[in-house]
From TrEMBL:
Record bears the keyword Isomerase: yes
Record bears the keyword Isomerase: yes
Listed Gene3D superfamilies: 3.40.50.1860
A Pfam family assignment: Asp_Glu_race
An annotated Gene Ontology molecular function: amino-acid racemase activity
Native organism: Bosea vaviloviae
Protein name: Aspartate racemase
PANTHER family linked: ASPARTATE-GLUTAMATE RACEMASE FAMILY, GLUTAMATE RACEMASE
Keywords recorded for this protein, A-Z: Isomerase
Amino acid sequence: MHIGLIGGIGVAATVVYYQRLTAAAAALGVAKLELTIAHGEIQELIRNNLADRRAEQAQAFLPLVTRLKDAGCDCVALSSLGAHFCLDELAALSPLPIVSAVAPLDAYFVEQGIKRIGLLGTRVVMRTRLYGQLARTDAMALDDEIERLGQTYQDVAVAGTCSTSQRELFLDAGRRMTAAGADAIVLAGTDLNLAFDGQNPGYTVIDALNIHVALLANLASGRQSLSDIPS
């Protein structure tokens, strides 16, 4: 299956998607991964996300999805959990099936025996507790810190780098949520790998990117079909 990916939102997130997807596909024995990436604009996404302009962002993504379809892609995925704020609006317009990074998470947490998660990501992801898509998992965030954490995450995503002080802010937020009863801290922002990769924070960390990548690799290998995936 030919995978289409909307990247550039941000660039560091796109790079890690590419790295992990190629590795996951190779591990499944995919001899030739069919993958096409279209570049989106992160500043446009940030403006629309903060203003909750879902229809406008869906329209901005639509030409990229059309371009991926014209390139022969069978489905499309967004390389940003923050971009999923307009997923319903985009799905209504899209000429390709969209493989959500959010929809598979609830079932994954249940399978892992995780009952309560702490969220890190964009302001919207934290405020809405993953867009309200968790039916069987309790989610928490540091509500009094959402603005600070969300702005820091935005800064990291745009820059494609994470400073020592920014990393410590995220690591400490995870510690606080763990102390408040979270079974695991979920990196619900693709660029958070810049803060957490290579770290040993002393609590369980789940990178939502890896769950999405595993699903895309299964599709690329033929182990799953589009009819099997949650939407």
